[in-house]
Write a structure and sequence with these properties.
This protein is mostly helical and 431 residues long. The protein has helices at residues 8-27, 29-39, 44-72, 74-94, 98-112, 117-126, 131-141, 144-158, 161-189, 209-212, 215-235, 238-244, 251-255, 258-272, 278-299, 303-332, 337-366, 368-399, 403-407, 412-415.
């Protein structure tokens, strides 16, 4: 299937739900955390520790969610996911104390496994799309931070954190849920969501053990885990971190450049990235994250330098969002795509679970600059992991005499354009 066969309204609809999903379930957390800590008589470290534990739990669920999306259809899975997200936000808003709030955050992160990128990417593929559709989706969804950091800040100036979360629950219930319901019906009409991608006898455990735990796949998981740690450590606390390095009142405007930079990176990739190996894109993305943070630390408290950091960091994050969907397609093909994405999501979420709390502890013990320099070093290790993936992938193509290129010229976009790969009992795989 080609990306052209996906209705444009489906891409825009999914993009809208990703903006709302990431904005309400993720980006708003750092803005509301100080007020939550004050009311519940917690330190901010413990408020972020709740998020870390919840992200860890979602990492355990992610492979199952990916396999379930393969079996029942991503669109159908996102409908109850939206309802769960709304209920989870209400649990947080109505929580009488610490335990109730922690349970609400846990429910939020578990629900995110069924409504955010990992499931949305599977929905794109099941609608007949591939790399270009994923790029278009991430292009739209890149505005989540740009919209929800200022929006959450503005709302919180007039409302308590509980009231803000109630509004966010309403967005998930009355915007995302109807859109996902419509997408599920659309998928059914074009004969995709009700067709299982894997044979009915397949288990929910994901790709076969030999392929899943090959050196290449382990390196892919390591690269995404390292990237997830670096990105989550900074992103969840970007506005407070910019304040700590001396930006003061400029922190929110500077941080708001992150979103447009994500969008710009995806637009550049959409226009000029066709045929570019996704391993190269992964290297560039990780370099943008590490390089951007290094720039900030070298020039702070310069506002101009901080703006360059936000641009580079957003550029790297934007590309990495694309790679999370396209790299497994390029390396492993379409069969059990949801499972591969689920395992990659698990690796990222597992490391992300420790990142916000870990960085907060490092800042408390070492100071903000040494802690962030350690994050730069983590980024360099991630670059090395993806460099190894690129080398192994290139060697594998050479050993097969270019058979993969002959079968699917043009890289990941062409691999995913194989016609009728989900039609009836036919199951074409390009590995």
């Amino acid at each position: 299937m080609s990306d052209a066969k996906i209705p444009a309204c489906a891409i825009w609809a999914l993009g809208t739900t990703q903006i709302v999903g990431y904005g309400t379930l993720y980006y708003s957390y750092s803005i509301l955390a100080p007020a939550v800590a004050a009311e519940l008589a917690w330190s901010q470290q413990w408020v972020f520790a709740v998020l870390s534990v919840s992200l860890l739990a979602s990492a355990v669920v992610a492979p199952f969610a990916g396999s379930l999306a393969d079996r029942v259809g991503a669109g159908r899975l996102m409908v109850p996911g939206s309802l769960a997200a709304a209920v989870a936000l209400l649990l947080c808003a109505l929580a009488p104390g610490r335990a109730g709030f922690a349970m609400g955050v846990l429910a939020m992160e578990l629900a995110s496994c069924f409504v955010l990128y990992s499931t949305a990417f599977v929905a794109i593929v099941q609608l007949g799309g591939a790399g270009r559709g994923i790029t278009h989706l991430t292009l739209i969804a890149g505005f989540a931070s740009t919209l929800f950091w200022p929006l959450t800040t503005l709302l919180h100036q007039h409302l308590g954190w509980r009231e803000v979360l109630v509004l966010f629950a309403a967005l998930n219930a009355f915007v995302c849920l109807p859109i996902h319901w419509w997408l599920a019906r659309l998928s059914s009409r074009i004969g995709k969501a009700r067709e299982r991608i894997v044979p009915v006898t397949a288990s929910l455990s994901g790709p076969g053990p030999g392929r899943r735990w090959s050196l290449l796949f382990v390196l892919v998981l390591a690269g995404f885990a390292i990237e997830g740690f670096m990105l989550s450590a900074v992103l969840v606390q970007m506005v407070p971190l910019l304040t700590l390095v001396g930006l003061g009142g400029a922190s929110v405007p500077v941080a708001s450049l992150f979103g447009p930079s994500q969008v710009a990176s995806r637009l550049v990739n959409m226009l000029f990235g066709r045929g570019l190996p996704q391993t190269s894109l992964a290297l560039g993305a990780t370099a943008g994250l590490a390089g951007g943070l290094a720039v900030l630390l070298m020039v702070a408290p310069s506002v101009a330098g901080a703006m360059l950091f936000a641009v580079l960091f957003g550029f790297g994050s934007g590309l990495m969002s694309i790679v999370g969907g396209t790299l497994p397609l390029e390396l492993f093909g379409q069969q059990r795509y949801g499972s591969y994405v689920g395992w990659i999501t698990a690796a990222r979420q597992f490391s992300s679970a420790f990142a916000p709390f870990g960085l907060t502890l490092m800042i408390s013990g070492l100071g903000v600059f040494p802690a962030l320099w350690l994050n730069v070093v983590v980024g360099l290790v991630g670059i090395a992991a993806f460099a190894a993936v690129a080398l192994i992938s290139r060697q594998s193509r050479n050993e097969t005499g270019g058979m993969a290129d002959a079968a699917a010229p043009g890289g990941a976009d062409s691999v995913t354009a194989a016609p009728d790969y989900m039609s009836g009992a036919r199951l074409k795989t390009l590995n």
